Amino acid sequence: MELTPYYQKDMECLNCKKKFKTTKVRSKFIKVLSHETDFQPIYENKEVNPLLYNIFVCEHCGFSFSDDFTKYFAPGVKETIQEQIASKWTPRSFGDERTIEEGITAYKLGILSGTLKKEKFVSIAGLALRIAWLYRLQTKQEEEIRFLEIARDRYADSFSNDDYNGTQMSESRMLYLIAELSRKIGDIENATRYFSKVIEKQKTSTEPSIIEMAKDRWHEIRAQKEKEAQ
Ligand SMILES: [Zn+2]
Fold first, then answer.
1. Ligand 1 midpoint to CA 19 (Å)
2. What is the mean pLDDT of residues 220-226?
């Protein structure tokens, strides 16, 4: 029997506790060829995109979450979710293979659910960034920019509130992302400011590759400015 790239996993909804199925991609089918300057992975197999399956959409109540969501619900949050999501939800499954469009819808449900549940800014930023990457695959530039800006703003919130502490996000990577997303949305002032912060940390950083990437982007901005000045 030929092994397919996909398998089904049993999930339990963090909110309503009911069971549902979600699709995952087998890791042997995921090979990353390279990354874009904002860390978007470029996969060898263009037909199988694991990014589409990071969000688990509960078919019963609509609450949608990722592996990064905590199990804890603050007092009153479940009532808000009931009012804002579950009461408006028409039961539908996202459990099969997803189109890019369905992947985007799943992430948007994830952002709504995560925002109501008060998940960390760094988690919400990650979801918005992935939506931008999916719009990039569809070459929908306006939508891509819109979500790059949301991601940039939430990463900036995360940085100023220090809520990425204890996650996989390092300070260098966070500052780099704020800078690069600013550059991509045309906010050159903030891009320059945050790339400088990354480069300032080169003596203490444990991530030389991030420092190099920041220097490359910095030089690109300088070259662009000189070109415009001519
Ligand atoms: Zn549920």
1. 8
2. 93
Q: What is the pLDDT of residues 97-152, one digit of tens each?
A: 999 999 999 999 999 999 999 999 999 999 999 999 999 999 999 999 999 999 99
Q: How many CB atoms lie within 10 A of CB 47?
A: 7
| The predicted structure's pLDDT at residue 230 | 83
Find the 144 Cα to ligand 1 centroid distance in Å.
29
Whole-number Å distance, alpha carbon 58 to ligand 1 midpoint, is 5
Q: How remote is the CA of residue 52 from the centroid of ligand 1, in Å?
A: 19
Q: Which residue has tokens 């030389």?
A: 208
Domain positions in the chain are: 6-166, 170-230
**What's the pLDDT at 1?**
61
What's the pLDDT score for residue 33?
A: 97
Are 197 and 218 in contact by the 8 Å Cβ rule? The answer is no
| Cα within 13 Å of Cα(224), Cβ side | 10
